[in-house]
Amino acid sequence: MDLNQLKYFQAVAYVKSFSVAAKKLYVTQPTISIAISKLEEELDVNLFLRSGKVVELTEYGEILLKATNEIIGKINSTKLAINELKYANENIVKVSVTSPQFLQGINIFLDNNCIKFKQTVNKLEDVKKLMDYNLIDISITSPGYESNNIKHKLLFKDEFMLAVHKNNRLSKLKEVCLNDLKHENFILLDRGFPFRQQTDLLFESLNFIPNILMECDHELRRLLLNQNSGITISSKSAKLRGLYDDVINFIPLNDVKQSRDIVLSWNKNVYKSKGVEAFCNFIIDYYNNLRKK
Q1: Is 197 in contact with 191 (CB distance < 8 Å)?
Q2: Which terminus of the chain has fewer Cβ atoms in its 10 Å neighbourhood, N or C?
């Protein structure tokens, strides 16, 4: 059993395909197949249930995957610790988020730390894969996600709110029921955005069907709100972080009991560099201060 065999096994376990794993690792499919066969021969068990092109882990495979994640995590941690000592003045933080807005205020951190920052925006399931593969140091997502190797810190329990232009007739209300807004024009994010998915679940829970005027990205939604072209579902954290212009008012939704979690996550088996530790402390303090506003 060697490290390459474990890496090949881990890749197949996550993508559930020998051919897809081969493409991701830039090796041939026979290379993957031979490595898995040698593992199964050495352990004298079947690691995968093979059904056509899709494969699933057996109970033996589940045990090996858990151990493999820990082994590869420890190896990567060791490499990182050595490299950090070797390049003491170079710090790189790799973070993936489900919304770039979660990093509001990061300029303060960058201005006061000699750290290189690599950020990607991904769907929740892709963030989880990046973390499982140890390709990122931390993630900030909403909602959070479960994994045996992941530790979490709840940054913010976020309330849904209605965002309207100050000249909109609704802006004078202290609170409003979502079900009273059936005839209003809604400007919503495209369905690919995680916040849109959470908004749709909110609508579904109240059997509410919005009258959708526009589906778009964050910037166009902001511009249309500034022109009083419609209303949108936003959040308390967006209000506190100043993500909208001053012409926008936020109104509590009194028939909405749901909230969303903004969660910081990291791999507990991976060594945290000084840069990663510093950024985690910064982002936790940032959201702590946000809650006090």
Answers
A1: yes
A2: C
